[in-house]
Automatic annotation (TrEMBL):
GO terms for cellular component: plasma membrane. Belongs to the tetraspanin (TM4SF) family. This is Tetraspanin. It is a multi-pass membrane protein. It is found in: Membrane. It comes from Nothobranchius furzeri. The chain crosses the membrane at residues 12-36, 57-79, 85-108, 217-237. InterPro entries: Tetraspanin/Peripherin (IPR018499), Tetraspanin_animals (IPR000301), Tetraspanin_CS (IPR018503), Tetraspanin_EC2_sf (IPR008952). The gene is CD82B. Pfam families: Tetraspanin (PF00335).
Length: 256
């Protein structure tokens, strides 16, 4: 391999690892967002499910590893250090295997994950009090912005302890459909209806979540495929550079 070609590979690999370092920082940021966010659907699951918490720690760990790999990959590429290039290749291979394994597990465990999510949300609805808890505020925000009510439908709220034991026609204020007549438009808590026909959204939030996933499925899949292609490219470049370094070292050995 010519010296010019080696130089191109070296600096291209450096730029690649710089991007990989930035990508790792984004993963760490996303993991921290999942762990500390209080204004999205994730926070509702996070407070009730250890799975989401563990997933956030895994994201932070993978992101930190990616940042470390990007750093050592940059050093190995610029200074042509074979051990760092070999370590970089091995780590990329392990991460790629882990990603494929995680994708397969999520695909085959999707029904179990869906059941666990349904259990968490229905438990939240049953125990809902409207006393400004973080998870309750988040669920109110989700229902209001997605214009949905309950998990599978507004009927889920009939299992709420306060609503079940009340003689009034109570309903969650965040389910209030503004197209219906009335003035009670509070963000959270329980509201009272003067009639038995509650002025709430009739669509369950599971439909809104599934619709969002379907609309963004192409983007999510594209990102996953793009990451895998970038990782494969990094593995190929690191092996080419490592091979060229070995060849250069061999050429420097005196011939008798």
């Amino acid at each position: 391999m010519g010296n010019g070609c080696v130089t191109v590979i070296k600096y291209f690999l450096f730029l690649f690892n710089l991007l990989f370092f930035i990508f790792g920082a984004l993963i760490v940021s996303f993991g921290l967002w999942v762990l500390f966010d209080t204004q999205s659907f994730i926070s509702v699951l996070q407070e009730s499910s250890e799975t989401v918490k563990v997933a956030s720690y895994i994201l932070i760990g993978v992101g930190s590893l990616s940042m470390a790999m990007g750093f050592f990959g940059c050093i190995g590429a610029i200074y042509e250090i074979r051990c760092l290039l070999g370590l970089y290749f091995t780590c990329l291979l392990l991460i790629l295997i882990a990603q494929v394994t995680a994708g397969v597990l999520i695909y085959f465990q999707r029904d179990r994950l869906k059941y666990e999510m349904s259990t968490i949300i229905k438990g939240l609805i049953i125990s809902y009090t409207g006393q400004n808890k973080t998870t309750e505020q988040t669920w109110d925000y989700i229902q209001k912005t997605m214009e949905c009510c309950g998990w599978t439908g507004p009927g889920n709220w009939s299992e709420n302890i306060l609503i079940k034991n009340s003689t009034q026609n109570l309903y969650p204020c965040s389910c209030r459909n503004s197209s219906h007549p009335g003035t009670d438009m509070r963000e959270g808590g329980l509201c009272e209806s003067l009639s038995e026909n509650l002025p709430v959204f009739q669509t369950g939030c599971i439909s809104s979540v599934e619709k969002w996933l379907l609309e963004n499925c192409g983007i999510i899949l594209g990102i996953c495929v793009g990451v895998a292609v970038v990782e494969l490219l990094g593995m190929i470049l690191s092996m080419c550079l490592c091979k060229s370094v070995v060849q250069q070292d061999y050429d420097k050995v005196p011939k008798y």
